[in-house]
Every structure is written in structure tokens, then in C-alpha cells.
Amino acid sequence: MPPTPAIAVTDLVVERGKRPVLTGVSTEVSAGSVTGLLGPSGSGKTTFIRAVVGTQKVKGGTVTVLGEPAGSKPLRGRVAYVTQDASIYRDLSVKANVAYFAALYGRDRREAMRAIERVGMGDHADKLAGNLSGGQKTRTSLACALVIEPEVLVLDEPTVGLDPVIREELWDQFRELAAGGATLLVSSHVMDEADRCDRLLLLREGRFIADDTPADLRAATGAANLEAAFLHLIRELEGAN
Amino acid sequence: MSPRITFITAGRILRQLLNDHRTVGLVLAVPALIIALISAIMDEAPQVFDQTGLILLAAFPFMLMFMITSITLLRERTGGTLERLMTTPTGKLDLVVGYAIAFGTAAAAQTAVAATVAFAFLGLDTAGPAWAVFLICIVTSLLGMALGLFVSAFATTEFQAIQFMPVFVVPQLFLCGLIWPADQMAGWLQGVSDALPLTYAVKALTEVRLNPEVTADMWTDLAVVAGAVVLATALGAATLRRRTD
Asked: Where in the cell is the protein located (chain B) (predicted)?
């Protein structure tokens, strides 16, 4: 018997107003892996992510995380969500922000400082979050999630606008977390990040057009890189229509 | 609901407020200054000031709490922190009661400064005890907080939130007896006045002004205000949604 997936999504349908955003998508994410959720903006990435963390109203289908319904009470200490725009308090310092989220999970200031160091914000710990650059805000927001050492970490476009060096460091950390047994779901619209994932979900117009490992995707499409592989898939689909 | 998380939340909100030095200054100084101004305006009629100044002691924290709660909560909603909190162990009541504790503390500090100035330097006089005035002011400030919490659900920008002031706050101020005694208004308007919770805060204050002992009527009026606080808080908490579109 295969191990239970960390995230299982079956026939998920989400409508916003009358407009369908997700049209019955299904997938499974195995524990201890990094899964990339890729797709152009407007394809439904954020909606999918919000359904996984349980903040999205869904029309149909089921989303199960660690064996529990998404967003249910037992999951609130085990799943962390980093939103696209840094969800932190601008009128608090970096330290106060991370310490607050840490305290909600019964963790102390020392652990908060360690999370701040991990995202390379140690030198800015006493700065007000409102005075930080965009990338620094994102890293602070990430530290607020890392501090709780979640079993499932869901990140919506965490590397947008970041320095390439920091981006590299963050991806190393994502890999490290997964090696430690955590499950990561990371959305991105940057294709060069796709190769760092164990598995890729390509979302286009509300449905998955690919759900595979990077190597298999390249092999199946005969393309040299993932960008070309995705183009190939999209053309194939449009040709079929 | 968890008391631990409630207090952590209240601490975070107070820290946000304290980090904003200008707001702290305004919160503490402005009501005392305005009451001093009113006292100077009514220089020749200290008995009128005893009525108006007393009502203002409760009206200021009421307005202030309405404003800061509606704006801060709107920021939580639009800044994404509310959605984030909803994925943490924080319950809706933890958040709402956290707000009440934090802003209630701010209201207490504001009332303490304004009441000290009014009683000690401006000659404000009540027959009843000062602690009763203080208690009524705190409960009234929580009413402002609860209303602010509720209306923040209907505003999408801070600009809109501010414009809810004339809708939810100003009519209550006009009809509570601040500018004109309620029993001398048009009959139908007295009915409206009786339906507004701030009116009962003024009635309770009037009881303290006229009677040396705390009266049963004061407790009844205060209970009406407290009931409105609970109702508005429950409505406000109901507008916090874990799942949104």
C-alpha cells in the first residue's frame, strides 16, 4: 500500500461569482516532498493554495491535509501558510512580528530569533516591518511560518522580487525542510525554479495540464527545458481542441 | 477560545498602538484639551458644564474606540493578516476579545487623564462617586469598539471606514442628550433616542451626577449598554470568516 499523501485533492471546484476558477482538479502530494505549483497569473494558483489551507470557499470536491479536512481545527498547529503579499504587521518590528506568531503556537522568543536568522534577517530584527524592502518583508513573513516548524508549509509565490542569492538560499532551505520530513507546496510563475521541485503541477485556466516529475515531463515532451516542455503541452492541448 | 491566545493577541495590538507615538499622544491629550475648551466656553454656567463635560467624558472614548477599531480591523482584513490568523490556532473570539482588552486599556488610560483634568482642574462636579463615572466610560468605550468591529466588515477602504462615523456615531451623539435633553425632543425622536445604546450611557451618567449613592437605575442603564456591547461584538465576530470567496 502506498503511504497516505500529505495533501489529497479530489474533484475540487471553485467558482468566484459565476466564473469558474478551478474546474474539478485532483492531485496528491506525498509527504516529505517539494511540489511546485506553476502557471501564469490568473490561472488559479492562489485559489488552489487557499483551498489547501482552508480559507477558500469551495463549490465541490474534497481537500484533505494530513488526513484531516483542509482548514479544520487539528490542522491549525501543523500547517503554515505564507501569503503572496507579506501578511505581517507593518507597525511592529521584525522581532515582534515573528515572536507574535511564535507565541500563538506556544513557542518562545529564542525560537523566533532563530527563525529570523534562518531567513537572513538577523541584522534587521529591530526594524519596523513597514520600513523594510519588499524582499525583506517576504522573508519576515516566511520566518513567521518557519518558526512553528510546520508539517505542511504552503507558500504562495515566495520568491517574487528577491535577490537571486537569497532565492537560492531559500530554495536550499525548502529542500532542507523537505529532507526533514516536511511537505512543501510552492507556487511560482518562474520556470527556472521548477527544476528544484520533486513534482510539478501545471495549472492553466483552472485545470492541471501536467502533474509529473520534472525529468518525466522533459522525457515525455522531448523538450530540453521545462519552459519548452510546458509550451509543448499547451500547444498539444490547443491542437486537440 | 483560549485565554492564553487572547492575551497574546491583546499584547500584540497594544504593542502596535504603543509603537505609534503620535497616536498615543493624541489619544491621551485630545479629550482632556477639548473638555477644557468646553469648560472655558461654559465659563458662566458651571452647572451646564457639569452635564455636558460629564457626557463628553464618555463620548470621547466611544468615538475614539469606534475609529481605531474600525481602521485597525480593516487593516487586518485588507492586509492579509486576518486570513493568516484564521489558519493559526487563533479563534474568532480570541481576536475580538483581544481587541476589547487592548483598546479597553487604551480607553481606560484616556478616561483617566480626561477625568482627572475635568474633576481636579475644571471643577466638574457629580453627586455620585468618580469610580462609577469611570466604569460607565469604560463600558461605553467598549460599545464604540464593538460597533467599529462590526462596521469594518462593510468597508473596503479606510476612507469608507471613516465615513461610517456620521452614520453610526454622530446620530447617537446628537440624540443621546449631549446637545439637547432627550425628553425635550419631538416625540418620535425620543423613540429613536430610546433605541440607541449611547442614550443609556448618558442616563447612567445622569444618575451618578444627581445621586450621592449608586442607584439601581444606573445599573439597569449600564446593563443595557453592556448588552449592546455583547450584541455588537457577537455580530462583529460573525463577520470574521475563516473561508472567503
From this structure: Cell membrane
